[in-house]
Fold this protein.
Amino acid sequence: MRRICLSVLFFCVGGAAASAQTTAPETPHVDDPLLAPPSPPARVLGSWEDAYRLLSARSTQLRIAIAEVEKAEDAARISLAAMLPQINGTGTFTHHLITQSTPIVIGTITATDPTTGLTATLPQLKNITSPQSDYFSGNIAFSQSVVHLANWHNYGTARRNTDASKISLEDTKRVLIGTAANAIVAVVTAERVAELNRVSLRQALERHAIAKRRFELGAANGLDLVRAEQDTTTTRTTLVSGD
């Protein structure tokens, strides 16, 4: 007899649970302008490389670090130039616009007249232009310092400054990557917080609708309705401040 009663009790409890599952209460329909999703952003980044490229293009610290590296490399090249061989050449071309031709005797010529057979000695002349019209002159000088300790020291210092500038550039890039990562995490977190705030507002509005319906049916008092309204107002304020 006891087994029969227990079986009947389990059957009743199971049927009640099944009926409770099939007849679940419907969620009240709520509508509010703040439940609409936020407007899409003006720029959507497709990958991490896009975010880093955009941040690098606008980073003044990165540009300064790159300029410092170039400046240190230029200083190293200038220091190296002081130890390289030096070849100096000069050339001059002279042209006189006003010249004078002067005949001078450079020798004698013996000439014989074929008709008379007489022989005569004549001077041989040559025109010389003074001053000389066009002439070119030039020289080339080569020099090489064998031992110059000051130049070697300056070159070594410049190379170390270049290495320090490159290390500073890498550090700036690491800081920039960290900044980009923090910004991405902040944006994703803000999106999730906005979604959670809208879910919280929807739940608060549903609780307020249920409390209002219960108040109309006499199952709740005015204090329950006021608490639901305060909860809705607080959730709405949180959503507005979060956006």
